[in-house]
Amino acid sequence: MSNRTWTTATAATSLADRGKGVALALQGGGAHGAFTWGALDRLLEDGLAVDRVCGVSSGAITGAMLVQGLVRGGATGARAELRRLWDRVASAHALSPLRAGPLDRWLWGWDISNTPAWWGLDMAMRVFGPSQMNPLGLNPLRSVLADLLDRRLLADPAAPRLTVTATEVASGAALLFDNERITVEVLLASACVPFLFPAVELDGRPCWDGGYAGNPPLGPLLDPAPPATLVLIRAQAGRRAGLPSTQADIANRLTEIAGQNLLAAELAALPPGVRVIEIAADTALDSLPVSSKFNGEAAFLTELHQAGRKAAERAVATVPSPA
Fold first, then answer.
1. Are strands 200-202 and 205-208 parallel, antiparallel or unpaired?
2. Which of 36, 76, 123, 191 is the most exposed, having the fewest neighbouring CB atoms within 10 Å of its CB?
């Protein structure tokens, strides 16, 4: 088979071989992380096994559910755990004011930036800081994660190594947390959008979204030795057609560009011999504005999940077979 490309099943079989050393890098992207869920769901369906995982923001939360699911019940358990997470996200969003009505969905699709609730939020973010808008630091994810996170499973000796990243506000440095140190607060810090939520203090250090220090950083996946295969699942568009027109979309694109350039530099510096499989989200996310990152409607998450599955299937089907 050395002169042929892998079929999806053959690629997945190779990724299921723990002896080859498979590492997962999971980007953050708010609700767009449902794309990552779909990609993982497709790989797990064929028995994906991993040695180490690094994630930020929604990628960190997804990674935590993946790891504890693998401990609980292998690939089948991980698929169930991921679905449980995103079902809970959809249920929590049902109570959110950031929901489009039937007419809005017909006119604008999954873009909620034309709803009164988004206009109000956008205006408030321009005038007030997070401590003024949200003085109690309320976060709908807190109760979801408190119910779902099982630290005992994360710390199990059989668990793949998981690294969650948050950004220290003072230094801008990436703070890394391994399996035994991952808590609800660590995950909330890794997903802390600084325009909406007050910084989360970890060990007395205020922290923001881990994506600002690397989306995601690859260094933790290279220690103590580089993996044979690195699977990068993107939850942000690498390329976007046209120019962003609103302040929110301009700021979002600047963040995407900064994170993309940092990640590109890390990918270029990977040691020789590391095979990289990228599962790109450009097709699914290119036309979606920043407001859709806050859209947790079940139908939208399902659409992204299906797009992630298809992207994973395309990606592994084009990976050359090792000689």
1. antiparallel
2. 123
Residue (of 60, 20, 22) closest to 44 by Cα position? 22
pLDDT tens, 245-263?
Answer: 777 778 778 887 877 888 9
List the end-to-end C-alpha distance of the chain, in Å, as a whole number: 8
What is the rounded distance in angstroms from the CA atom of residue 189 to the CA atom of residue 212? 12
Render 192-203 in DSSP notation, one character per residue: --TTTSPPEEET
How far is it, in rounded angstroms, from Cα 171 to Cα 207?
Answer: 10
Contacts of 66 (CB under 8 A, 6+ apart): 24, 40, 53, 78, 81, 82
Query: Does the CA dihedral 264-306-37-31 come out positive or negative?
Result: positive
**How much of the chain is in helix, strand and coil states, percent to nearest 5?**
50, 15, 35
In this structure, the number of other CB atoms found within 10 A of the CB of residue 39 comes to 31
What pTM was estimated for this model as a whole?
0.87
Taking a C-beta distance cutoff of 8 angstroms, is the pair 109, 313 a contact?
Answer: no
Confidence of residue 321 (pLDDT cuts 50, 70, 90): low
| Rounded Cα–Cα distance for residues 272 and 259 (Å) | 23
Q: How confident is the model at residue 8 (pLDDT cuts 50, 70, 90)?
A: very low
Residue 128 has, within 13 A of its CA and on its CB side, a CA count of 14
Query: Would you place residue 4 in the very low, low, confident or very high pLDDT band (cuts 50, 70, 90)?
Result: very low
Q: Please, are residues 30 and 47 in contact by the beta-carbon 8 Å criterion?
A: no
* Of 45, 41, 65, 46, the residue nearest 55 (C-alpha): 65
* Nearest-angstrom CA–CA distance, 227 and 276: 10
79 Cβ contact list (under 8 Å, min separation 6): 41, 44, 45, 69
Asked whether the predicted pLDDT for residue 42 surpasses 90, the reply is yes
